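Re: weekly structure request thread

Next one in the queue (229 aa):
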Amino acid sequence: YPNMKAEAILYSLAILFQGSMTQNLGRKVTEAKPCHELAQAKAGDEVYVVYSGKLASNGKVFDSNTHKNPIHFELGKGLVIKGWDDGILGTCVGEKLILNIPSSLAYGEKGLIPPNADLIFDVELVDLDKTLQIETTKEGNCANDRSTRRRDRVRINYVGKIAKPDGSIEVYDDNFAEEFLTLTIGEVGIDGFDKGVAGACLGEERTVIVPPKLGYGNEGIEELSRPTP
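Done, posted below.
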């Protein structure tokens, strides 16, 4: 029965293909709040979320915190269902999303909701705490394993930039054409600057992305200026 065998193989392939199609996360932005890429939610950020979850099969709401305080968690660490970890990545504060999450990225066969249930979440990212990001762009020389630490007096060159909501980057300070800036780590007055310089080796070059809470805070300053020696 060669034809029956071929049909059976095709039928099996169709099932596998159909199954793979249902495993994709659906993500739709219903209210956009554009922000710079550096301000988008990334793995390791503490995110604050308001949500409402319902069953995709019948629209029944099974969980919601819309009339409560936002929940918060560290993104990308497996503390929530994978559909949330993946779906909230790249979101800006204030944005609202609809996440269509297949059961494989939700609760699977277990949980208090029906087994193998596909879910739909309305999600709003109301706030986030960014983490300090440090990328070494040029290795330095750490003789005798000596790297900079708190209270060390150091000389540095730097370029200070600010990321604007429209996606542009503005340079607000640059001392490469001048003498080195001499300062004491821990006494700069900008937490992110202190943390970004600490642990560096002689000659090392770094890109340090400083979140607002470790920079100039929520209030900012009227005129951007260089760190205090």
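The chain has two domains: 25-129, 133-214. Helices lie at 2-21, 82-88, 191-197.
Next request, please.
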